Automatic annotation (TrEMBL):
Designated name of the protein: Phosphatidylglycerol--prolipoprotein diacylglyceryl transferase
Coiled-coil residue windows: none
Pathway per the UniProt entry: Protein modification; lipoprotein biosynthesis (diacylglyceryl transfer)
Species this chain originates from: Bradyrhizobium diversitatis
PROSITE patterns (UniProt xref): LGT (PS01311)
Protein family membership: Belongs to the Lgt family.
Task of the protein: Catalyzes the transfer of the diacylglyceryl group from phosphatidylglycerol to the sulfhydryl group of the N-terminal cysteine of a prolipoprotein, the first step in the formation of mature lipoproteins.
Transmembrane segments: 20-41, 61-81, 101-119, 182-202, 209-226, 238-265
Length: 277
């Protein structure tokens, strides 16, 4: 086994001002994702002409998607993972610093933000969805690393002879476990980003909905795979047939993602737009 690294929960501290690793992961994920989105929009070759979204529009969209992530992520956690507790303690819903965010809720929040912003600004919903999901693995990677640093959402118990098994300080059982946060960082972050980047390089952005569908489908697959190594939330445990909440919420993603991919292929490439000024 390996010893769990002794990380401090606070990443940056200046006097009374402190930023925790999880908050820093959100900040960096949004900033790096925004910079990557701008670089994709500037490359006309990837779109077969001028991108259907301007740089000014993507700058304005950052606030919308940030609110979608935070509000959706928190709402999803409350509804999907710990509803009885929050019914008894409604004030705790607003204590974001105590943790508790759901990817699936955050994703739905982003969907609402994409649809609303696209409608108000008269830009293609699928193309905005493509650019949003193309950069999303950056945030997922940093978020899972922050989970590991915080020693939370650890993996299932495993044989202590596993070279990278470790005991997490906050685990009351003190059993050797899989560092499943790092597994998920590799699959949901590095692997997903790489696959989408390759697809983009080969022209996927020219087919609206292709990257969006691929993200949804591949994330669903990697999340289900990762859940086999991750300890279920204590208040939920295993559900029907040994499934976890993360698995159940990911199954519809497989269907929606496959439908979007098929639709994008059959619809064909979008017609080049005039330059947005």
């Amino acid at each position: 086994m390996r010893d769990f690294p002794a990380f401090k929960p606070i990443a940056i501290e200046i006097g009374p001002f402190a930023i925790r690793w999880y908050a820093l992961a959100y900040i960096c994920g949004i900033v790096f994702g925004w910079l990557y989105a701008r670089s994709l929009l500037k490359n006309q070759r990837l779109w077969g002409g001028p991108a259907p979204i301007s740089l000014v529009q993507i700058d304005d969209f950052i606030l919308w998607v940030t609110l979608g992530i935070i509000l959706g992520g928190r709402t999803g956690y409350v509804l999907f993972y710990n509803l009885p507790f929050f019914i008894d303690h409604p004030a705790a819903i607003f204590k974001l610093w105590e943790g508790g965010m759901s990817f699936h809720g955050g994703f739905l929040g982003c969907v609402v933000a994409v649809m609303w912003f696209a409608y108000r600004n008269k830009i293609p919903i699928l193309s905005l969805g493509d650019i949003t999901t193309a950069v999303a693995p950056v945030g997922l990677l940093l978020g899972r690393i922050a989970n590991f640093i915080n020693g939370e959402l650890w993996g299932r118990a495993t044989d202590p002879s596993l070279p990278w098994a470790m005991v997490f300080p906050n685990d009351p059982t003190q059993l050797p476990r899989h560092p499943s946060q790092l597994y998920e960082a590799g699959m949901e972050g590095i692997l997903l980003f790489t696959v989408l980047a390759i697809m983009i390089r080969f022209g996927a952005l020219k087919r609206p909905g292709m990257i969006l569908g691929a993200f949804i489908l591949i994330y669903g697959l990697t999340r289900i795979a990762g859940e086999h190594f991750r300890e279920p939330d204590a208040q939920l445990g295993f559900l029907w047939g040994g499934l976890t909440m993360g698995m159940l919420l990911s199954i519809p993603m497989l269907i929606v993602g496959a439908i979007l991919i098929v639709w994008a292929v059959r619809r064909g490439a979008a017609k080049p737009l005039q330059a947005i000024r």
